[in-house]
From TrEMBL:
Protein name: 1,3-beta-glucanosyltransferase
GO molecular function, one term: 1,3-beta-glucanosyltransferase activity
Keywords noted in UniProt: Cell wall biogenesis/degradation, Disulfide bond, Glycoprotein, GPI-anchor, Lipoprotein, Membrane, Signal, Transferase
Gene name as annotated: KAFR0K00860
Annotated spans, Disordered: 403-440
Organism: Kazachstania africana (strain ATCC 22294 / BCRC 22015 / CBS 2517 / CECT 1963 / NBRC 1671 / NRRL Y-8276) (Yeast)
Family per similarity comment: Belongs to the glycosyl hydrolase 72 family.
Classification via Gene3D superfamilies: Glycosidases
EC assignment: 2.4.1.-
Signal peptide, first to last residue: 1-21
CC per GO annotation: fungal-type cell wall; plasma membrane; side of membrane
Entry annotated with the keyword Transit peptide: no
Listed Pfam families: Glyco_hydro_72
Amino acid composition bias (Low complexity), ranges on this chain: 403-435
Amino acid sequence: MLLKSLLTSLVGCTMASLAIAANSTVATIEVTGNAFFNSDTGDRFYIRGVDYQPGGSSNLTDPLADTNVCLRDLPYFQKLGINTVRVYTVDNSLSHDDCMNAFADAGIYLILDVNTPDASINRNSPACSYNAAYLQNVFATIDAFANYTNVLGFFAGNEVINDSNNTNAATYVKAVVRDMKNYIKARNYRTIPVGYSAADIVSNRVLIAEYLNCGNDSMARLDMFGVNDYSWCGHSSFTVSGWSEKVKLYDGYSKPMFLSEFGCNEVVDSRPFTEIEALYNVEMTSVFSGGLVYEYTNETNNYGLVQIDNENNTVTELQDFINLQSEYNKTSNPTGDGGYSKSSDYSTCPTYEAGVWEANNTLPEMPTAASAYFKSGAGEPMGTILSTEGDCDAEYDLEISSSVEATSSSEVSTSSIESNSSSMTTATSTTTSSSKSKDSGNLNIQVPTIFKIVNEIMNYII
Ligand SMILES: *[C@@H]1O[C@H](CO)[C@@H](O)[C@H](O)[C@H]1NC(C)=O
Ligand SMILES: *[C@@H]1O[C@H](CO)[C@@H](O)[C@H](O)[C@H]1NC(C)=O
Ligand SMILES: *[C@@H]1O[C@H](CO)[C@@H](O)[C@H](O)[C@H]1NC(C)=O
Ligand SMILES: *[C@@H]1O[C@H](CO)[C@@H](O)[C@H](O)[C@H]1NC(C)=O
Ligand SMILES: *[C@@H]1O[C@H](CO)[C@@H](O)[C@H](O)[C@H]1NC(C)=O
Ligand SMILES: *[C@@H]1O[C@H](CO)[C@@H](O)[C@H](O)[C@H]1NC(C)=O
Ligand SMILES: *[C@@H]1O[C@H](CO)[C@@H](O)[C@H](O)[C@H]1NC(C)=O
Ligand SMILES: *[C@@H]1O[C@H](CO)[C@@H](O)[C@H](O)[C@H]1NC(C)=O
Ligand SMILES: *[C@@H]1O[C@H](CO)[C@@H](O)[C@H](O)[C@H]1NC(C)=O
Ligand SMILES: *[C@@H]1O[C@H](CO)[C@@H](O)[C@H](O)[C@H]1NC(C)=O
Ligand SMILES: *[C@@H]1O[C@H](CO)[C@@H](O)[C@H](O)[C@H]1NC(C)=O
């Protein structure tokens, strides 16, 4: 009896492990010239998607690790007819198999930001935050997702440069792009595009695009470029919104470009989303490859397509959802190749100009300790609890300590659309909420040097 039941359970176990299905596969998306292509059909691929951040930037959760969330939302993605979601942060220690496989089965691709609120390039203190512990977290996230064929690409950063006075941080963003691309190659993963999601800042939007796609080291040039653009509001038009000028501005850029956030909500009522008809029209597709609507769930900043009721985990479609669905429905992609460019002429590096463009064309070497990961993988994923920024805020606070208050609340209203768009997603870009910065501020005066030493030691021992 005992033996029999033991045997039965052993057999049961074996069968259970045999029953673990292989990951679902879809045709991967590849980059040629300035466009994406379906590797199977050879058709041009246009991103039709939404930014997927349930909880908002103030309560970041990993929607891809919880089937109560992703399977709740998937039917709505299908109803919209989208093919891509962007997720701003994940917990790399959790399994994403169920959600990623369900998305793959539905033909939905993922663009994933590899940072967490506490493991990011800090825009105020970028050199400090660029360390081996940070790269371990980034590489472990790549390890966790590289096998899913429906990963369209990774974002190395989101709006790290969000002003005219922190362009020097671009040096470190570019170093991270380089390190991620080198890591993907060293680990023999498929060539997964690595890009950056930029704030639409008048004084440096072209400079950042050029910088990240310049120089003769192809591994340091990004593979795709996202712009967070809120300039089309309501019933605007291709010319009134300024999108016609943007097509001219970025014409000739040799990498796929798309809107990584769009959907201005300065509207009287619901958003009509008439920009969909322009975005998937040949007037834009020679330069842009679609975009992602900000954002799926309605949070406090009032950009949502659906309202989630957390009590009973239900989804209610808002008028924005209905409008967007209707616009998608009436807008097909251009026929043929949409006028894309095969040119591989990368950009010329912008020259240093104090106060305007302060990034360095000589990138910092990767922290030496991180090279171990290239041989053996990143190892244990640390999840979202890891802070790799150590004293970086404190270091910055100290620099400017006496006079200025270090950080302002990201909720504080600002005059420009660019600023609003960045404050919506700051949690994923670099320094997070004002409360975190203030905590760090309390620590700073006494012990920054010690923190700095610890940080430097970590660079070597990890
Ligand atoms: C599916 O892919 C994930 C992520 O790379 C991996 O952890 C998992 O082992 C894969 N599952 C199978 C059955 O291959
Ligand atoms: C944060 O998100 C989690 C998971 O979705 C949810 O259970 C929790 O209620 C949220 N917290 C707040 C303060 O909204
Ligand atoms: C940039 O300027 C803003 C004020 O406009 C200030 O809050 C911030 O600390 C400055 N950042 C840097 C890196 O100097
Ligand atoms: C990816 O898949 C391959 C082949 O199925 C497997 O050997 C490898 O362990 C997987 N890698 C990860 C990180 O899951
Ligand atoms: C790349 O550019 C650097 C500096 O501009 C130069 O020293 C180097 O020789 C170039 N390398 C190649 C392969 O062209
Ligand atoms: C979205 O959420 C905000 C904040 O909870 C709320 O004020 C607003 O009414 C919601 N929007 C819609 C269309 O329900
Ligand atoms: C979910 O709960 C809300 C109130 O919290 C209620 O208005 C709504 O009808 C409920 N939905 C379902 C499907 O039970
Ligand atoms: C548009 O909606 C109609 C009616 O619901 C439906 O039959 C059709 O398949 C939809 N087209 C697309 C492209 O989603
Ligand atoms: C640029 O970086 C190089 C090496 O990383 C450094 O030697 C040089 O001082 C930097 N230049 C500026 C202007 O920061
Ligand atoms: C920007 O913020 C201001 C002030 O909070 C607000 O009135 C405006 O609607 C916001 N604009 C966008 C595009 O979110
Ligand atoms: C840049 O992001 C920080 C949050 O890290 C925010 O405090 C600041 O206001 C942002 N700057 C602009 C110009 O939006």
